[in-house]
Design goal:
This protein is mainly alpha-helical and about 150 residues long. It is built from seven helices and no strands.
């Protein structure tokens, strides 16, 4: 490569960030306990976009979560436990397929969010607070601080 600066894609950055200690737990707590959307929050930390772009991202992620990703996640979770007379091996095979679809849907959302704003390194907490506000039902600042510390 010439002198071009290479920055990881949002997807690559998010995968690496999610593997850091405490990030997955913080994301899942924000998702399950506070109704936040993980990909959206990670994008806000990655891009630190202006408020108008955050609002556009929140609208996209909210719709994606409600209409597409949320129902797939619910199906995956429902397939976790035995379901009466349904063959367990077949149920688990279908669950693996649903898990792969869920991951593809997350990646498509993240790619779409990344298209709204390029990466902008900076402090994650202010971006996460603004993202929570743009989402419409902000989680407690302490929960966002937990994620920001884990991302640092």
């Amino acid at each position: 490569m010439s002198g071009d600066f290479w920055a990881p894609s949002f997807w690559d950055w998010a995968l690496a960030a999610y593997d850091r200690p405490g990030v997955a737990e913080a994301c899942l707590a924000l998702q399950d306990d506070h109704g936040q959307q993980t990909a959206y929050l990670l994008w806000a930390a990655w891009a630190s976009p202006p408020d108008a772009v955050l609002a556009d991202g929140a609208e996209l992620a909210r719709h994606w979560e409600a209409a597409i990703l949320g129902p797939v996640r619910q199906s995956r979770r429902a397939l976790k436990n035995p379901l009466g007379p349904v063959d367990d091996a077949a149920r688990l095979t279908v669950r693996e397929t649903v898990t792969a679809v869920e991951l593809d849907l997350e990646k498509l959302l993240m790619t779409s969010l990344a298209g709204l704003s390029p990466p902008a390194p900076g402090a994650a907490l202010p971006a996460l607070i603004r993202a929570g506000e743009a989402w419409g039902d902000p989680p407690p600042v302490e929960a966002l601080m937990h994620l920001a510390r884990a991302l640092a």
